[in-house]
Amino acid sequence: MSTDPSSPRQTISDALKHFGETFPSLTVQEVKSSWPKDIGEWLESIQKRNAQHKKRVKQMRKQFSITMELMRVEGVSVRKLTPPVLSDRFKDHVYLDIHGGAFVYYGGLSSIDEGILIAARLGIVVYSIDYRMPPAFPAPFGLRDIEAVYRAFLSQENSKNIFIGGTSAGGGLTIALIQSLIRQNLQLPQAAYIGSPWADLTNTGDSRQTNEGFDRILVTYHGELRAAAALYAGTIPLPDPQISPIYGSFGGFPPCFIVSGTRDLLLSDAIRVNRSIRDNQGTTHLEIVEGLSHAEYLIAYNTPESLVVYDGVSAFFQRHS
User: Of 89, 192, 301, 302, most Cβ neighbours within 10 A?
Assistant: First the structure.
């Protein structure tokens, strides 16, 4: 080992380093040139991606010994995820999980991967919302489904017993939901988790340029990500707050735990969301994890970096419960 203080030092875990070396990441040019061009190609891509993700979810359920129950809440498919051990701090609470997937992927069973991690690592009962998605159901169908489920839980639970959150598109939908609840003067969740949020579906934000090609997961905005934004928005302009909630109001937000990584293509979204809440006297904790690409704490979940994120969510929820 070099003793030269000017030599490069590894600032990420060996597990994350190994993941980065083995993950089949595409080049910027490959991502720009390979994306679904019509509805038929989108349906084929969605079916293929979801089938691959189901295998991962089944492995995770077995690894974490999670019990799952499929139910319908206000006509929306919801999966109840129960860990083998409930935390004393959260035994009277529930967590509503809003899955990611660029607003188009990971419906059905493939939607519960982060719900599994939240359930297992926090020791809390999770309800994962399988909201409707494009191509058949562009915005605002998904958000309406999520709000319908939240309202149903609000009628059964004290809002102080409800946490809510999600990663990527799930993070963006969490923000949009909270903004909708505030507009309607509805009770808010006790606290929210906003992971690597896709809060601005336009090509805006410094990290979209500085992290292009360095983010192992998203790689670039140009290509599938831009196409997914258009598919999700449908006839609604991308800067509309119900599509890009960064352009909505942030007054009155509940406490929010916000996560991103130094390689995240959407790092700017997390930073801007954090600043918008803080500028409106809200309470936030912004966790920027060294070396992580977009949502990599969820994808590379067997890493110390992933444990740090969910330990942080747990501690934040405990402080605000």
Answer: 192
The one-letter amino acid code at 63 reads Q
By C-alpha distance, which of 224, 278, 237, 279 is closest to 256?
278
Please, where are the H alpha helices in the chain? 14-22, 28-33, 39-64, 113-122, 141-156, 169-183, 207-210, 224-233, 267-279, 296-299, 304-319
* Inter-residue contact 107 to 302 (CB < 8 Å): no
Question: pLDDT tens-digit profile of 78-96?
Answer: 999 999 999 999 989 999 9
pLDDT in tens, 9-45: 899 999 999 999 999 888 999 999 988 999 999 999 9
Q: Where do the domains of the chain lie?
A: 14-319
- The fold of 14-319 is Rossmann fold (3.40.50)
Burial pattern 143-180, b for ≥16 Cβ within 10 A else e, equals bbbbbebbeebbeeeeeeebbbbbbbbbbbbbbbbbbb
